[in-house]
Structure formats: structure tokens, C-alpha cells
Amino acid sequence: MKKRMIKYIYGLLLLGFATSCMEDEEVKLPDGPGNIQAEAGYGEVVFSWDFPQDPNVVFVKVTYQNSAGENKHQKFSQYAETAVIAGLEERAYDFEISLGDKNGNLSDSKMVSVTPNKPPYLFVAETVELIPDFGSVKVLWENVTEREVAINVKYTDVNGQPKTEVFNSSDVQGQGEITDVAAVEQTFEVYVANPTGLLSDSEMISVAPYAEEKLDKANWEVIDISAEEQEGQKFNLYDDDISTFWHSPWSWSQPNYPHYFIIDLKEEKVISRIGLVNRQNDSRGMTKVSFSGSTDNENWTELGEFDFEQINDEQKFRLVSNPTLRYIKVTALEGSNFFTFLAEVYLYGQ
Questions:
Q1: Closest CA to 134 of 186, 213, 209, 215
Q2: How far apart are CA 34 and CA 299, in angstroms?
Q3: Residue 12: pLDDT over 70
Q4: How far apart are CA 59 and CA 107, in angstroms?
Q5: pLDDT band at residue 305, thresholds of 50, 70 and 90?
């Protein structure tokens, strides 16, 4: 019994000695990383620092308070080239930066104050526009931050059902389109979200999509034309009869492409589409066409080049700018022969 007691006391002495040695060897960490740099970003702060060479240091801890007053933190290893704290508001933040060892012990901290720039989703929310179009509404926005955001648009669809369209984008100049809407005015609710779910305030925008109509041809007149055949004259272009047609010269002369004609509508119209019908059952005509428009027959705007198929059905070409025009110039650019022809021209818009 006496021997056991001696061994027990001896063990306690050894434990006390070991504990005393551990206390004497307690790790002392440097006071925070050196050369701390902080750059204010869009809704974020980007930190860099000199990570200490001390082998006991394994991470840097950055602590701050959110808008609710709750303490938040992120840890960054020695291998992180930069440290980004994201999801921040446009206000002043005090960041507490300290070093940590593998046991979670922390050094004394250093304080850095930074005010981030406005977050991307709030930047974008200030730029969103809704533009009426024919049978649709265009959604436009700017995003100088080039960060991913979600533009949300709530509306009532053509069947009277509530719907939300979401456009996820990081494009500097963004565009979307809502197509399932009636041609009546309604109020759209627009807000922008960031990837973590933060939302901008909603903006209510009232827009009425345009109703697209086939325009009446009663007063149209071809006022200029490259040339025509006697049996394929210009007035056949708008006589609402697809069995008749205009034909570029082929018998008395053989001019090559381009071939063109200009139609005077006699009044300005908003044009959404141009419809062309080829000469029926003949595949020897043009394969590429261009359009331009004017309000005064002097100053012209190019409206685009398009492929043209040699088929009987009407081919419609969308003019995305919805130009307001009085004069339309149609130019046949190329084809399998030197000549071309066309049975009918239609215009759509308001």
C-alpha cells in the first residue's frame, strides 16, 4: 500500500512538471499580418497582406459586423493570394484582422476601416428600363460592375396569369424580352437580386406593348427603281396579287446586281417587319436582300442584310429598331443569275 502511494505521488509530480513545461512553451503569435492593404469594391472589400513566416501561423481571421449587428468572420489560409469579403453594403465597416494557429489560438488584432462601393445589384436596379415593342416588352439594363445579378420582372401574361421573368446576367449592356403579354398597358414590378438573395427595392413601371398590324397599301407608290421589264413592272410589287411580279431587266438589257426599288408610303409609319413574296414557282431570283429607310428620301438608315430563300411563301424580316419611316428601299444584293424578281411587298407595324 505504501509503495502504491509513493508511485501515485511521483506520477502527480511528473504531470505537474510536464504542465509547467508546456506553459513555459506557450506559442506567441505575431500581432496580425503585415502590410495590410484594403481596396473597396462593388459591395465587397478586397484585402491583401504579408503572411508571416512563423510556422505556427496557419490562417488569417477577418471579423466584422453585418447590418443587424451580428459578428461575422472569414478565415483565409496562407495560400490565399487575396481575401475578399463580399455581400457588403455601401457603409463604413471596421474589420478586425488577426492571425491564428492550428489550435485556433488568435493573435492580437489589427483594425482596418473601409467603405465598400454600392453593391452590383443596387447599381443595376437604378438602370433598368422597360421599352414597349411589337407584341413584347424589352428589358434593358447596365452593369458596369460585370458581376452576376438577377433582374426580376413580375407581370400578368396574355392569359391573365401572374408571372415572373428572371434574367441572370453579368453583361455590361444587358437586354431581355418578355413576349407573352397583351397589347394593353399594365404595371410591371421590377427588382434586382444578388447571388446571396439580397434584393433591391421594387420599382413599378407601366408599359403598353405595341399591336402589330399589316399596313394598308392603298397610297403606296414606287418612286425610284433600278430598272424593270415591260412584263414585270414596279406596280406589281404592291397590287396584293402574288401571281404578278416585278422583274429586273433580262431581255433588252442584262445589268448585274444590285437591283433596287424605293416605295413611298405617303406618310410616316413605325415599321416592325418587312414581308417579301418571291415570284411563284421560280427559283432563279435573289438570295440576299438589304433594307434601308428614310423620312425625307435624302437621309437614309441601313436596316440590315438578310438571306432570301427561293420559296413561294412570304418571308418576314424583323427590324429590331422599329424605325419610323416614310420611304423604304429594298435592294437585291446577289443571286444565282444576273436578274431577279419579286411578287409582293408587305409592311407590318403601326
A1: 209
A2: 65
A3: no
A4: 11
A5: very high
What string of H, E and C letters represents the secondary structure of the chain? CHHHHHHHHHHHHHHHHHHHHHHHCCCCCCCCCEEEEEEEEECEEEEEEECCCCCCCCEEEEEEECCCCCEEEEEEECCCCCEEEECCCCCCEEEEEEEECCCCCECCCEEEEECCECCHHHHHHCCCEEEEEECEEEEEEECCCCCCEEEEEEEECCCCCEEEEEEEECCCEEEEEECCCCCCCEEEEEEEECCCCCECCCEEEEECCECCEECCCCCCEEEEECCCECCECHHHHHCCCCCCCEECCCCCCCCCCCEEEEEEEEEEEEEEEEEEECCCCCCCCEEEEEEEEECCCCCCEEEEEEECCCCCCCEEEECCCCCEEEEEEEEEEEECCCCCEECEEEEEEC
Place of cell 451580428: 70
Cell of 31: 500581432
pLDDT at 254: 87
pLDDT at 19 > cutoff 50? no
Tell me what the mean pLDDT of segment 299-308 comes to: 97
Residue 303's identity, in one-letter code, is L
The pLDDT tens digits of the residues spanning 320-341 come to 899 999 999 999 999 999 999 9
* pLDDT exceeds cutoff 90 at 174: yes
The pLDDT of residue 233:
87
Residue 234's φ and ψ, nearest 5 degrees, are: -65, -35
- Average pLDDT of the residues in 37-52: 94
Retrieve residue 277's grid coordinates. 413574296
